[in-house]
Structure formats: structure tokens, C-alpha cells
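yo, Aspartate--tRNA ligase is done. seq:
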Amino acid sequence: MYRSHTCGELRMEHAGQPVTLAGWVQTVRKFGSITFIDLRDRYGITQLLLGESLNALLDQQPLGREFVLQVKGTVTERTNKNPNIPTGDVEITVSEFTVLNGSKTPPFTIQDDTDGGDELRMKYRYLDLRRNLVKQNLTLRYRVNRSVRNFLDSRGFMDIETPYLIKSTPEGARDFVVPSRMNPNQFYALPQSPQTFKQLLMVSGYDRYYQIVKCFRDEDLRADRQPEFTQIDCEMSFVEQEDILNTFEEMTKHVFREIKGIEFNEPFPRMTWDDAMKFYGNDKPDIRFEMKLTDLGEAARGNGFKIFDEAELVVGINAAGCAEYTRKQLDELTEWVKRPQIGMSGLIYVKYNTDGSLKSSVDKFFNERGLQLFAEQCNANPGDLILILAGKEERTRKAMSELRLEMGERLGLRNNNEYKPLWVIDFPLFEYAEEENRWVARHHPFTAPKPEQLHLMDEPAKFGQIKANAYDIVLNGTEIGGGSIRIFQKDLQEKMFGALGMSKEEAQHKFGFLLGAFEYGAPPHGGIAFGFDRFCSLLGGSETIRDFIAFPKNNSGRDVMLDAPSEIDQVQLDELKLSLLK
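structure:
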């Protein structure tokens, strides 16, 4: 072994012991006839003291940052102790050292407050991974992985691998496709999820399955999305919705207990999809703060204000304690809602002043009583500020949802160290795609409708009323997992495919293997998939999942370290019987 201990291991109880360490040079500090070196490895930092004789060697063989060094010496008590690191009470009085490998000057400093930009650090990701902050993130990811596996193993779940080279099936996003050399002009797809495989495993009798598995979706990227991502994928047989919710609420509590030391003693709250949309404007509400949406249509219309009178929806929120917002601050908010990504034409406000008076941007249309109605409906008190948007229903509700989150951010109500999980249940089974002029599955085509609404599957005019046996687990305004009770009868699955506009021939071509399996005693089953990267980022207090992935892609889906994707040579194209369009 090149070392007897790690650089994060030594304490005062080791004083006087001979040790051998190996690691990377973090810093070199020369003071006359002695030199101090901070030696770093995955486990921590230890200070080295090189005396006069070794100091002379350094003049002949200078050490630089990131040199790989082996040292031998004795553990001694430090004169100037460093309380900020676990090894800060000791140092190594070095008797000999060996340079195992030199290093070029790194393109950025390998420390927490690095001077490297995002793109530069991704190009040299193998260096970025040496930084303590990144190591902490990957360590957390490993601990969450281990915690989940231990929990599921204790509950009788079996880890079963499923294929990566599969058939392309519609699941809501574009597939990544892989040409087959042995089957010219035919293609595999990389799985968006193991959905059909885990259902087949239920048919096979493996009643508790899980995988922590890579999935692939060819879609536009953002902070919480990568082309390849990881799911905690789970399925259970002979269960109902309540069994799934209880099991995976328990798993979530287990992870929080082990990773964050947080104990959730109460059941997670549950909210219907209808209420989530009504009170929060989206199906993944952040319940760390109130500020619920209030429909103000009845109080707003009929007062001669055209914007309100012609709007499909007039909705408000109460920003408690914000009546002292200045005109400049209100103008900033108005410009914020006018941004293209929000898409509103303006913002109306009502100030409920501390003296009890009411002041509004629409005073000439509403008397004191009219403004008082807004205050009453929004449960406002003196000192509060009511913000109102009006327009097309879907856009306005979404815009108010975003404004609510923005106000929560500005008021410091979205604390990353506070965790508020909940279940959102009773989703619609279908949603209507106007551009395609057809019904599409809200989740995926294998989700079962509520049992009491099965009869509506024969009435296309009532598809919009059908609720799904589906559920999402939400944490701090982010969906971290979602699932459903599945369809397990062939006739109902065929009916579902038909409702989505699939002919029997198309359904047989794409999903014949699953329909066939349902003819051989498929059990009732259901499951859930957690976004593992997303869960880790929330536990780590970050908004981007890239911080918790060892080798992530950038926002263009490129690996700038490998320079991938890249061209392939003509020989490979010929073997695959492919030609490229110019």
C-alpha cells in the first residue's frame, strides 16, 4: 500500500506514530527554512511539516499544486491548530517524500471558491470532482442510494436489471435510438423508463421489484433535467393505492432520518389534483408557505374595468406584510409578469395600509367597498398587499403560480433547509391535446382509471371527467416521484389504447408482448418511480441535478469533456447501412 492512513483520519491519539500518507498537494507555504504542505485526498486534508534538510530538496525539486505525493513521517501536535478541519490538531513531521507524479498548472483552482466557470469545470470534470463541495454531493448521492437499497431490501424488494436496448414505444418524450448492425435498417431505443418490463415482472410473479436505473429521454434540458438520468424504480403486486403511498412515504421518511437527521412524525399531507390547481396553480405545490390563489372573478367583474370583465380568470394572492412595497418595487413586479416566459400584460395591486385604508392601481373603477371585497376574499389584514392577474384561464393560473413562487423567494419563505413533502392524488386520466385534436394520457397509457369510473371509458364525451389511480410525491414545490396503479386486464388496456387513438393493429405492433402477457394471469399491480438525481439535489440544498451527477451533460446535451456527441467514421456508417443527409 502507498499509505497507512488517509488524509482525513489522523487525530491527537495518533501522536508519535509513524505513518505513510499519499495524496494531492493542495497548497505549499514556504517559511524560511521550513515548508508547510496541505496534502489532500478523498477523505480530507492533513498538514505536512518539512524541516530544513527536506526544505533544501524542495529547492531542487519544487512541488506544485496537484502533484501526487507520498510522504513518511511522524504524527505530531500542531503549534497553530486549525479548528475548521477534523485533522486540525495534528501535522506530519515528514522524514522523506516521493513525488509519484507531477502536474501541470490546473486550469482553475481546486477549492470550494474556485475561479473556474461552469463550462471550464465541465471540460475538466475529472479535476472538478476533486473539489470538496463536489465530493460532498457525490458522497450524499451514495448515502441516499445505500439508504434506499437497505430500506427496500428490508421490505422484501428484489433488485432486478432490465434491458437498455429495447423497442421504441411512445411514453411522452422522444426516444434515443441505436442502429442495429446485425439487423440492417432497424433500431433499438434506449428506455425512457423500465415501465413495461416491471409490469412484466409482476406478471412473472416477482411481486416486489426495484432498480436504481438509468433512463434516457431526448428532450430539451434545464436545471433539473438531463438526457440520461437515474430513477428509483419500484413495482408491487396485489396492492392498492394506499399500500403504495404508505410504503414509499415510509421510505422517504427513512431517507430523511438517515441522511438529514430529520424525523417526520406525522403522515404526509394529501391534496387532490383539483385543489392543487385551484389553490396553487400547479400540480406540484410548494407548501412551505401559504399565499394561496383566490378566484376574485365574482368581486372583480361588473365594475366597468374591461380587463376584469373580459377575463376568463381573475385571480389574486395575498403577500402578507407587503403593503409598504414602493412604487418602484411594484413596477418591478409588473415588468416581471410581462416577461415572455410569464406572458401577462400587466399586474393589478391592492394595498391594505396599516391604518386600514385601501389603495389600488384600479381606484377609479372600484370604491372602498369594492376593494374591501378583494381584501375579504384574500383574507388580507392591514399591512398586506394583494396582487391580481387576469386573462385566459390556463395562462393566468400558471402565471399566478409563478408569481406566488417569486414572491415566496423574495420574502425568504422558500428555505432550502425546511422540507415540506406531500402527496398529490386523483389526477385526470386524460388531457386533450388541441394541436393533435385527440386525447393523450396524463401520465402514461398503462395507468388505471379509478375503479368507480371504469364505465366512463366507454363514453368519449366524458373522458375529461375520469380520474386516474395515480399519485405524485412532491417536496418543496418539486415532483420527486410519481406512479400509479396499473391496468392489468387485456380488454381494459386495449380500451385505453383505443381512447388514445391507437388502432388495434398499432397497439398489437407496439405492445403485443404486454397484451399477450395479460392473457396469462396478470395480478393487480402498481408502482412508483422517484427521480433519484432530483431527490439528491433537494437533500443537498441545490436547484440543479448536475451538481449530483459525476459526469453530467451541459444544457445543449453535450459532454464537453469527451466532446460528445461526435461524428463517426465512414466504416462504421457502412457497417450500420446508414448514410447521412448533407
